[in-house]
Design brief:
14 strands; alpha+beta; five-stranded antiparallel beta sheet; 40% strand; five-stranded mixed beta sheet; 320 residues; 3 helices
């Protein structure tokens, strides 16, 4: 009860401060500190009821703060367990976070703050996680009310003739047995309402408007966007060895691990699927599409190679 009163007073203070300082800017660092405390408490509270109650306080305070006219300029980097991505064209920000539940599943939450010409300002749209009710999650076209929830950590713009697609890389805590990583596609209609999912994955091994990787809870799956070199077959063969001649290419690439069963007899059960770091796959941009590359031996030319170390040769000694 005491906490609820304090949060209510904080929200009143925010409202009063914004009203008094309208047009003069605001010190968002103060409110970021309050949001950070609420976010930590909502992750660590003992019961699910407490976590959701604290998250409601966090959401209400965040919404009030983001509706202040200058909030788009603030970074929010100090708020922990909370992702904020800004599109390079400054068209929108997307805020995502999650709440752990007592059954070891999670609920993802979010806002999109997008500029709307008709209203001449940034407008806030809440996102509602509906992934558990989607019959065909990989091919469902969503919106802010039907969102395949995830906490996003990278945003990649891709311009086409008719629109700009924003590809989002995200993580989903999913349930007791598995985690997920997601390649999501976001674009905006003419009225700037968001659309999630698009048919822009080319030569992938299944029809998908978003890519969902599900893997064992205790494993680490890599999904990154980096500059990589990779080899492409030229269709020609060496006249002496008759081996295929490859050409080395360089491109910005979504690169990810292969996923395979822990043991062959386990089949394709997600709880027993683990990454194989020796094998990579990827997507590169190709005329407004993501072109799938199978079996990529990616090498990041921007990363320094470890220094070569000369070690003394060790010999077997039967007396040791």
């Amino acid at each position: 009860m005491k906490r609820t009163v304090l949060v209510f007073m904080a929200i009143l203070m925010v409202s009063s401060a914004f009203g008094q300082r309208k047009g003069k800017g605001c010190d968002f660092r103060f409110w970021a500190d309050s949001l950070d405390r609420l976010r930590v408490e909502s992750m660590t509270a003992r019961t699910e009821v407490e976590r959701y109650s604290l998250n409601e306080d966090f959401t209400n305070l965040l919404e009030l703060t983001l509706n202040e006219e200058n909030s788009f300029k603030f970074g929010w980097d100090s708020v922990k367990n909370f992702s904020v991505l800004t599109s390079p064209d400054k068209l929108f920000k997307i805020f995502t976070w999650f709440i752990p539940k007592d059954d070891y599943t999670v609920e993802n939450l979010g806002f999109i703050q997008v500029y709307k010409d008709g209203r001449k300002k940034y407008v806030l749209d809440p996102l509602f996680d509906r992934r558990v009710t989607m019959d065909y999650p990989k091919t469902t076209i969503g919106n802010q009310n039907k969102w395949y929830g995830a906490v996003y950590y990278n945003l990649i713009p891709m311009k086409t003739k008719n629109r700009t697609y924003y590809t989002l890389l995200g993580w989903n805590g999913n349930d007791l047995f598995t985690n997920q990583k997601v390649i999501e596609v976001l674009y905006f209609k003419q009225d700037m309402s968001p659309v999630f999912g698009a048919n822009i994955f080319k030569k992938y091994n299944e029809k998908a408007y978003r890519i969902i990787f599900e893997y064992a809870k205790n494993s680490v799956f890599s999904l990154k966007y980096e500059n990589h070199t990779y080899d492409v077959g030229t269709g020609k063969r060496d006249p002496k060895t008759h081996t295929v001649i490859y050409e080395t290419m360089t491109a910005d690439m979504i690169i990810f691990d292969d996923i395979a069963p822990l043991d062959d007899f386990m089949g394709n059960v997600a709880a027993f699927m683990v990454p194989e770091s020796s094998m990579n796959h990827g997507f590169i941009q190709d005329n407004g599409k993501w072109l799938y590359l199978n079996s990529v031996n990616g090498r990041n030319p921007d990363k320094d190679k470890p220094a070569h170390q000369v070690k003394a040769r060790e010999y077997y000694n039967p007396n040791n």
